[in-house]
Design goal:
Elements: H1 6-16, H2 30-39, E1 43-44, H3 48-58, H4 64-72, E2 77-81, E3 87-91, H5 95-103, H6 109-112, H7 119-133
Antiparallel strand pairs: 1-3, 2-3
Helix pairs in contact: 2-4
């Protein structure tokens, strides 16, 4: 059995998450960004700027524009539901693996409680909202 100090465990985790030392062995480009995103198993992207910041901390020289180019132009990243059912940026090359892995999990409890409305029910809800926010006469 290997014995590690807490400092050694923390240092390994920081290195594996590309936070220490940062991945600076190549100039930042869409492929490098995707490689780091793959290594960290996706960047949380519920808010786009959170993913941009997360990637920027790991790949020095990365800009918001580079992350957006990797996502929308180069398509080396994809925005989808990832780990924990939240929005993540994942490496496009890893997408088949993620889809296979995530579809093997049971549906989250919030998905099982979703109630779909019929078109008629939708109309009734919209009418009720309109009534509730209407100016008093």
């Amino acid at each position: 059995m290997i014995e590690l100090s807490w400092a050694q465990v923390s240092a390994r985790r920081l290195a594996r998450h590309r936070l220490r030392p940062p991945a600076a062995d190549a100039a930042p480009d869409a492929a490098r960004v995707a490689d780091v995103v793959s290594t960290i198993c996706g960047a949380h992207a519920q808010i786009a700027s959170a993913a941009e910041l997360s990637i920027g901390l790991r790949v020095p020289g990365t800009t918001r524009a580079l992350v957006r180019r990797a996502l929308w132009t180069d398509r080396t990243l994809v925005k989808t539901r990832g780990p924990r059912g939240t929005v993540h940026l994942l490496a496009a090359a890893d997408l088949p693996m993620w889809v296979g892995a995530l579809t093997a999990l049971p549906a989250p409890s919030w998905e099982r409680s979703v109630v779909l409305l019929t078109p008629r029910q939708t109309e009734q809800v919209l009418a009720a909202i309109a009534d509730a926010v209407a100016e008093p006469t």
